[in-house]
Amino acid sequence: CGDGGVTWAMALILANMVSTSLPEYPRLRLLELGAGTGLVSSCLQRRGHELVVTDGHDEVLLNLRKNWPKADIRRFRWHVAEDYQVLSQWGSFDLLLGADLLVDARHCDAFRAALRPLLGVSPEVLLMERHRSGARPCAKLIRSDGFWVEERQEEQLTNVVVDSERDPPWLLLEASEAVLIRVRREENENGSAEWL
């Protein structure tokens, strides 16, 4: 099942951030990379956005389809070049999202290789990553590849309930390591999207 059978802290943090910062209108077309349990997409779909939910593991896809039968769930491995061909067939997206994709240097290299095809279908990619996993060095490499990159430490989480526990210490510790990475083809006029 890979790592997609667990809702990781970065997915919780990304879901919390985008569900409060992305407006309900206009309705956006979004693609989640490596969706795992689908938490981020589920939060955004409840706000009225159109989602394409992707993962590369068959067991994860079966679980997503079982738990979320009306969702647009597709197999896509963002780190496998052969899978890039399907992107252009899916149309364009307003934003691509992912959490805990840059686990190590190998994943950073694969993500850097995937950026041109990914940014061919969307103007922006938004990632929530762990600082200790090498997120900042990876962001620096992506910037050196000629992309506009913004990285920022996420603000402290509050009032988050997990398994009936408010602000669990393990999640607050993980949140202190969270780094938001935004990648664009090029900087827009004011340097950032209005919704963040």
Descriptive labels:
single chain, globular
Describe the fold and architecture.
- With 196 residues, the protein is of the alpha/beta class.
- It has helices at residues 9-21, 39-46, 58-67, 105-119, 135-144, 169-175; strands at residues 29-33, 50-55, 72-75, 95-99, 124-130, 148-153, 161-162, 165-166, 178-184.
- Strands 3-2-1-4-5-9-6 form a 7-stranded mixed sheet, with helices on both faces. A two-stranded antiparallel ribbon has the order 7-8.
- Helix 1 (9-21) runs parallel beside helix 2 and helix 4 (105-119) packs across helix 5.
- The radius of gyration is 16 Å and the shape is globular.
Shape estimate: globular
Q: What's the helix count?
A: 6
Averaged pLDDT? 85
Which regions contain 5 or more consecutive residues with pLDDT less than 50? 191-196
Number of strands: 9
Provide the helix percentage.
Answer: 25-40%
Order of helices and strands: HEHEHEEHEHEEEHE
Described by strand count, sense and barrel closure, the largest sheet is: 7 strands, mixed
Task: Specify the structural class.
Answer: alpha/beta
Per DSSP, what share of the residues sits in E-state strands of 2 or more residues? Answer: 15-25%
How far from one another are the termini? 33 Å
Q: Going across the biggest sheet, name each strand in turn.
A: 3-2-1-4-5-9-6
Rg on CA atoms, Å? 16 Å
